[in-house]
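Notes from the 1:1 (GR / supervisor)

We went over the backlog. Supervisor wanted to see one worked example end to end before approving the batch request, so GR pasted a single chain during the call. The sequence is below; no edits were made to it. Supervisor asked that the structure be written out right there so they could see what the output format looks like.
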Amino acid sequence: DRLGRIPGEVIVVPHCNPRGLGQFVLGRHLGRFNIQDGRNFNRGFPDLAEDVISTLERLDAKARTRERAVEIGLSLLRSYDAKGDGDRLRLHLMRLSWGADMVIDVHSDMEAILHMYSSQTAWPGVKPLAERLDIAIVLLADVSADTPFDEAHGEAWRRIDRYLGEYGALPSHPTCACTVELRGLADVDEALTGRDAEAFHAFLADAGAVVSESRVMPQTDTIVPADLAAVDMVPSPCFGIIVPLKTPGSRVRKGDILARIFDPA
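Structure output shown during the call:
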Protein backbone atom coordinates (compact mmCIF):
# COMPACT_ATOMS: atom_id res chain seq x y z
CA ASP A 1 0.00 0.00 0.00
CA ARG A 2 2.85 2.42 0.84
CA LEU A 3 4.33 1.74 -2.61
CA GLY A 4 1.02 2.50 -4.31
CA ARG A 5 0.62 -1.04 -5.62
CA ILE A 6 -3.04 -1.49 -4.68
CA PRO A 7 -4.99 0.24 -7.46
CA GLY A 8 -8.19 -1.51 -6.38
CA GLU A 9 -9.86 -1.79 -2.99
CA VAL A 10 -9.19 -4.97 -1.03
CA ILE A 11 -11.16 -5.62 2.17
CA VAL A 12 -9.87 -8.54 4.24
CA VAL A 13 -11.66 -9.78 7.34
CA PRO A 14 -9.25 -12.24 9.04
CA HIS A 15 -12.02 -13.74 11.19
CA CYS A 16 -15.53 -12.80 10.15
CA ASN A 17 -17.34 -14.69 12.92
CA PRO A 18 -16.03 -13.59 16.34
CA ARG A 19 -19.20 -14.81 18.05
CA GLY A 20 -18.70 -18.34 16.74
CA LEU A 21 -15.01 -18.18 17.62
CA GLY A 22 -15.93 -17.79 21.29
CA GLN A 23 -18.29 -20.77 21.44
CA PHE A 24 -16.67 -23.64 23.32
CA VAL A 25 -18.68 -26.39 25.00
CA LEU A 26 -16.81 -28.89 27.18
CA GLY A 27 -13.57 -28.00 25.43
CA ARG A 28 -14.95 -28.39 21.91
CA HIS A 29 -15.20 -25.49 19.51
CA LEU A 30 -18.73 -25.24 18.09
CA GLY A 31 -18.51 -22.19 15.86
CA ARG A 32 -20.63 -23.14 12.87
CA PHE A 33 -24.00 -22.90 14.58
CA ASN A 34 -25.17 -20.25 17.02
CA ILE A 35 -25.72 -22.15 20.27
CA GLN A 36 -28.37 -19.59 21.28
CA ASP A 37 -30.80 -20.29 18.42
CA GLY A 38 -29.24 -23.17 16.44
CA ARG A 39 -28.92 -21.13 13.23
CA ASN A 40 -25.99 -21.63 10.90
CA PHE A 41 -23.82 -18.50 10.96
CA ASN A 42 -23.12 -18.89 7.23
CA ARG A 43 -26.76 -19.17 6.17
CA GLY A 44 -29.69 -16.79 6.21
CA PHE A 45 -27.97 -13.74 4.72
CA PRO A 46 -30.42 -11.15 3.38
CA ASP A 47 -31.50 -11.59 -0.24
CA LEU A 48 -31.50 -8.02 -1.56
CA ALA A 49 -32.47 -8.63 -5.18
CA GLU A 50 -36.25 -8.18 -4.91
CA ASP A 51 -36.06 -5.04 -2.75
CA VAL A 52 -33.33 -3.47 -4.91
CA ILE A 53 -35.26 -4.16 -8.14
CA SER A 54 -38.55 -2.83 -6.73
CA THR A 55 -36.76 0.38 -5.69
CA LEU A 56 -35.11 0.74 -9.10
CA GLU A 57 -38.52 0.42 -10.76
CA ARG A 58 -39.65 3.60 -9.02
CA LEU A 59 -36.79 5.57 -10.60
CA ASP A 60 -36.51 7.16 -14.01
CA ALA A 61 -35.23 4.65 -16.56
CA LYS A 62 -31.94 6.55 -17.02
CA ALA A 63 -31.28 6.30 -13.27
CA ARG A 64 -31.52 2.52 -13.25
CA THR A 65 -27.80 1.82 -13.13
CA ARG A 66 -25.52 -0.56 -11.29
CA GLU A 67 -24.14 2.31 -9.22
CA ARG A 68 -27.64 3.13 -8.00
CA ALA A 69 -28.27 -0.56 -7.29
CA VAL A 70 -25.18 -0.55 -5.03
CA GLU A 71 -26.38 2.59 -3.22
CA ILE A 72 -29.88 1.17 -2.80
CA GLY A 73 -28.53 -2.11 -1.42
CA LEU A 74 -26.37 -0.34 1.15
CA SER A 75 -29.31 1.82 2.20
CA LEU A 76 -31.49 -1.27 2.62
CA LEU A 77 -28.81 -3.00 4.69
CA ARG A 78 -28.70 0.00 7.03
CA SER A 79 -32.49 -0.06 7.40
CA TYR A 80 -33.02 -3.77 8.11
CA ASP A 81 -33.68 -4.79 11.71
CA ALA A 82 -31.34 -7.35 13.24
CA LYS A 83 -32.90 -10.06 15.38
CA GLY A 84 -30.00 -11.02 17.62
CA ASP A 85 -26.22 -11.16 17.33
CA GLY A 86 -26.26 -13.52 14.36
CA ASP A 87 -28.29 -11.13 12.19
CA ARG A 88 -26.17 -8.17 13.28
CA LEU A 89 -23.12 -10.10 12.12
CA ARG A 90 -24.72 -10.97 8.76
CA LEU A 91 -25.80 -7.38 8.10
CA HIS A 92 -22.37 -6.02 9.02
CA LEU A 93 -20.59 -8.43 6.66
CA MET A 94 -23.03 -7.58 3.85
CA ARG A 95 -22.44 -3.84 4.34
CA LEU A 96 -18.69 -4.41 4.04
CA SER A 97 -18.99 -6.42 0.84
CA TRP A 98 -22.08 -5.29 -1.07
CA GLY A 99 -21.14 -3.97 -4.52
CA ALA A 100 -17.74 -5.68 -4.65
CA ASP A 101 -16.59 -7.07 -7.99
CA MET A 102 -15.35 -10.22 -6.28
CA VAL A 103 -16.49 -11.82 -3.01
CA ILE A 104 -14.47 -14.74 -1.62
CA ASP A 105 -15.60 -16.58 1.50
CA VAL A 106 -12.78 -18.70 2.94
CA HIS A 107 -13.72 -21.69 5.07
CA SER A 108 -12.20 -24.85 6.48
CA ASP A 109 -13.99 -28.17 6.50
CA MET A 110 -13.58 -30.80 9.22
CA GLU A 111 -11.57 -33.07 6.92
CA ALA A 112 -11.26 -32.35 3.21
CA ILE A 113 -9.09 -31.53 0.23
CA LEU A 114 -9.15 -28.09 -1.35
CA HIS A 115 -12.48 -27.44 -3.05
CA MET A 116 -14.62 -24.52 -4.12
CA TYR A 117 -18.32 -23.66 -4.28
CA SER A 118 -19.55 -21.16 -6.86
CA SER A 119 -22.17 -20.69 -9.56
CA GLN A 120 -22.36 -21.21 -13.31
CA THR A 121 -22.58 -17.43 -13.73
CA ALA A 122 -19.51 -16.69 -11.61
CA TRP A 123 -17.38 -19.61 -12.78
CA PRO A 124 -15.50 -17.73 -15.55
CA GLY A 125 -14.52 -15.07 -13.02
CA VAL A 126 -13.43 -17.39 -10.22
CA LYS A 127 -11.77 -20.00 -12.44
CA PRO A 128 -8.40 -18.16 -12.28
CA LEU A 129 -8.49 -18.48 -8.48
CA ALA A 130 -9.19 -22.21 -8.73
CA GLU A 131 -6.31 -22.53 -11.18
CA ARG A 132 -3.88 -20.61 -8.97
CA LEU A 133 -4.84 -22.63 -5.89
CA ASP A 134 -4.76 -25.86 -7.97
CA ILE A 135 -8.23 -26.80 -6.74
CA ALA A 136 -9.32 -30.17 -8.07
CA ILE A 137 -13.06 -30.06 -7.31
CA VAL A 138 -15.37 -27.11 -8.02
CA LEU A 139 -19.08 -27.43 -7.23
CA LEU A 140 -21.45 -25.12 -9.10
CA ALA A 141 -25.02 -24.06 -8.33
CA ASP A 142 -26.79 -20.73 -8.83
CA VAL A 143 -29.12 -21.48 -5.91
CA SER A 144 -28.23 -23.99 -3.20
CA ALA A 145 -30.04 -23.57 0.12
CA ASP A 146 -30.74 -20.94 2.78
CA THR A 147 -28.72 -18.10 1.18
CA PRO A 148 -25.06 -18.56 2.16
CA PHE A 149 -22.76 -15.52 2.08
CA ASP A 150 -21.37 -15.97 -1.42
CA GLU A 151 -24.81 -16.70 -2.88
CA ALA A 152 -26.30 -13.61 -1.19
CA HIS A 153 -24.02 -11.64 -3.52
CA GLY A 154 -23.72 -13.76 -6.64
CA GLU A 155 -27.36 -14.79 -7.07
CA ALA A 156 -28.70 -11.35 -6.09
CA TRP A 157 -26.51 -9.60 -8.64
CA ARG A 158 -27.37 -12.15 -11.30
CA ARG A 159 -31.03 -11.16 -10.96
CA ILE A 160 -30.32 -7.43 -10.61
CA ASP A 161 -28.03 -7.41 -13.67
CA ARG A 162 -30.65 -9.28 -15.68
CA TYR A 163 -33.13 -6.53 -14.79
CA LEU A 164 -30.62 -3.74 -15.54
CA GLY A 165 -29.85 -5.35 -18.89
CA GLU A 166 -33.31 -4.33 -20.05
CA TYR A 167 -32.13 -0.70 -19.78
CA GLY A 168 -28.68 -1.20 -21.31
CA ALA A 169 -26.94 -0.90 -17.95
CA LEU A 170 -25.18 -4.25 -17.86
CA PRO A 171 -21.72 -4.20 -16.21
CA SER A 172 -18.57 -5.15 -18.13
CA HIS A 173 -18.37 -8.26 -15.95
CA PRO A 174 -20.70 -9.81 -13.36
CA THR A 175 -20.12 -9.85 -9.63
CA CYS A 176 -18.27 -13.09 -8.95
CA ALA A 177 -18.63 -14.88 -5.64
CA CYS A 178 -17.31 -18.18 -4.32
CA THR A 179 -16.53 -20.11 -1.17
CA VAL A 180 -13.10 -21.71 -0.90
CA GLU A 181 -12.86 -24.66 1.48
CA LEU A 182 -9.23 -24.45 2.54
CA ARG A 183 -8.83 -28.18 3.30
CA GLY A 184 -9.51 -29.47 6.84
CA LEU A 185 -9.03 -28.05 10.31
CA ALA A 186 -5.78 -29.95 10.88
CA ASP A 187 -4.18 -28.89 7.57
CA VAL A 188 -2.13 -26.01 8.96
CA ASP A 189 1.58 -25.69 8.25
CA GLU A 190 3.93 -23.05 6.87
CA ALA A 191 4.39 -24.68 3.47
CA LEU A 192 0.64 -24.92 2.76
CA THR A 193 -0.03 -21.46 4.11
CA GLY A 194 2.75 -19.94 2.03
CA ARG A 195 1.55 -21.54 -1.19
CA ASP A 196 -2.06 -20.55 -0.54
CA ALA A 197 -1.11 -16.95 0.27
CA GLU A 198 0.94 -16.70 -2.93
CA ALA A 199 -1.98 -18.10 -4.94
CA PHE A 200 -4.47 -15.59 -3.50
CA HIS A 201 -1.97 -12.78 -4.10
CA ALA A 202 -1.48 -13.90 -7.71
CA PHE A 203 -5.24 -13.97 -8.22
CA LEU A 204 -5.56 -10.40 -6.93
CA ALA A 205 -2.87 -9.42 -9.43
CA ASP A 206 -4.75 -11.20 -12.23
CA ALA A 207 -7.89 -9.27 -11.29
CA GLY A 208 -6.04 -5.95 -11.31
CA ALA A 209 -6.60 -5.28 -7.61
CA VAL A 210 -2.86 -5.31 -6.82
CA VAL A 211 0.29 -4.77 -8.89
CA SER A 212 2.53 -7.81 -8.55
CA GLU A 213 4.74 -10.11 -10.54
CA SER A 214 3.55 -13.47 -9.28
CA ARG A 215 5.51 -16.68 -9.65
CA VAL A 216 2.50 -18.92 -9.06
CA MET A 217 1.62 -20.64 -12.32
CA PRO A 218 -2.02 -21.60 -12.86
CA GLN A 219 -2.93 -25.28 -13.15
CA THR A 220 -5.51 -25.64 -15.90
CA ASP A 221 -5.78 -29.38 -16.48
CA THR A 222 -6.73 -30.64 -13.02
CA ILE A 223 -10.02 -28.86 -12.33
CA VAL A 224 -13.26 -30.85 -12.33
CA PRO A 225 -16.30 -28.51 -12.38
CA ALA A 226 -19.41 -30.41 -11.28
CA ASP A 227 -23.00 -29.61 -10.50
CA LEU A 228 -23.65 -29.33 -6.77
CA ALA A 229 -26.44 -31.88 -7.24
CA ALA A 230 -23.73 -34.48 -7.88
CA VAL A 231 -22.73 -34.33 -4.19
CA ASP A 232 -24.32 -36.88 -1.90
CA MET A 233 -23.92 -38.35 1.56
CA VAL A 234 -22.89 -41.99 1.91
CA PRO A 235 -25.21 -43.57 4.49
CA SER A 236 -23.92 -46.27 6.80
CA PRO A 237 -25.94 -49.49 6.89
CA CYS A 238 -25.10 -50.08 10.56
CA PHE A 239 -23.43 -48.70 13.68
CA GLY A 240 -19.89 -49.53 14.74
CA ILE A 241 -16.25 -48.55 14.44
CA ILE A 242 -15.48 -47.13 11.00
CA VAL A 243 -12.15 -47.90 9.33
CA PRO A 244 -11.73 -45.77 6.18
CA LEU A 245 -10.27 -47.48 3.12
CA LYS A 246 -10.20 -44.30 1.03
CA THR A 247 -8.67 -40.95 1.98
CA PRO A 248 -10.09 -37.52 1.07
CA GLY A 249 -9.35 -36.81 -2.57
CA SER A 250 -9.24 -40.45 -3.67
CA ARG A 251 -10.86 -41.24 -6.99
CA VAL A 252 -13.42 -44.01 -6.69
CA ARG A 253 -15.47 -46.10 -9.08
CA LYS A 254 -18.86 -47.65 -8.71
CA GLY A 255 -18.55 -50.69 -6.47
CA ASP A 256 -15.44 -49.52 -4.60
CA ILE A 257 -15.44 -50.12 -0.84
CA LEU A 258 -15.07 -46.81 0.98
CA ALA A 259 -14.79 -48.14 4.53
CA ARG A 260 -15.37 -51.16 6.74
CA ILE A 261 -17.50 -51.00 9.86
CA PHE A 262 -16.83 -53.32 12.78
CA ASP A 263 -19.33 -54.12 15.49
CA PRO A 264 -17.47 -53.63 18.80
CA ALA A 265 -19.95 -55.93 20.55
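Supervisor's comment: The beta strands are 24-25, 28-29, 102-109, 115-118, 137-140, 176-184, 224-227, 241-244, 259-262.
Batch request approved.
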